[in-house]
Fold Threonine synthase.
Amino acid sequence: THQWRGIIEEYRDRLPVTETTPVVTLREGGTPLVPASVLSERTGCEVHLKVEGANPTGSFKDRGMTMAITRAKEEGAQAVICASTGNTSASAAAYAVRAGMVCAVLVPQGKIALGKMGQALVYGSQILQVDGNFDDCLNLARRLSENYPVALVNSVNPYRIEGQKTAAFEIVDALGDAPDIHVLPVGNAGNITAYWKGYKEYSQPSPASTLAGGADRPALPALSTRRPRMWGFQASGSAPIVRGEIVKDPSTIATAIRIGNPASWQFALDARDESGGFIDEVTDREILRAYRLLASQEGVFVEPASAASVAGLLKAAEQGKVDPGQRIVCTVTGNGLKDPDWAVAGAPQPVTVPVDAVAAAERLGLA
Ligand code: F0G
């Protein structure tokens, strides 16, 4: 009868909470790490998918949001605000409900997926569609949080990064050590920052276990002995880190990562350089190919932005950058149901049959 308690309770000794902190949770985290046989075969490696679409609101944002909203609540905030391409806003809206707070969200008009808009609406947040892109929304959210009584819960809020780093802990717990390579999509660059922080910290005993050490109780050993190389992938039309300059009018079908001026830009470069990794780009065509492969070959339905990690891995493999025999984890960041338009687009219309077994069997090629 054991149930996963959410990332704060599961990793309490490595997160900025105390005994009296009012934990706001939907029992996020504890997501599947799924072996990917087709990707493993294609790369000659052992590839796993960290399926973050299995979180309560369907994306990795819940890890950061449980921390950010918990600390906002502890500090007495009554309202929170975020800019979002859709997943942050869905998550903020849900956790604000749990905390009894008002949630305001700023989204780029016409550029967020239908499922995400539905989430913001049904959780009851106050939505403003901004006549601009995500970067404009984030500037506006920052200005509002500086001048009005509302707490900013974008990943520039350090508690977001603290929560999101727990995904790296879970991977080390599941595999027994860090992988050789960790691959993920990059938008505002908070997540690559968080994973790298998580991997670095999990090679050290936790502060709590160090304190608990002593003559009769030695500190626990470090949990990971290695650190992965961090590989990040941006969408070609929204690849400021790859280009080395702000992209004024970012474009991509992967609306979640349609970002021209990432807030955690420098931290992403640090993760890349400290780990000996790289940040590259993938085209929308490559993203959609990986998106379809994940669903039809691995049985994992993700949103397009999430497929950027896998598209990047396949691109790197084709370029001969992937030595065989390595252990690789790709984070797939959001659930495919968030953006069903891309599943339907281009697919053949299902045929209609009468209530007739013979006719149905014929259409199915069974008879
Ligand atoms: N994948 C998905 C599904 C996302 O929603 C995001 C970011 C990313 C990847 C990129 O992560 O920004 O930490 O580099 N979504 C933000 C949002 C911008 O508003 O939901 P990142």
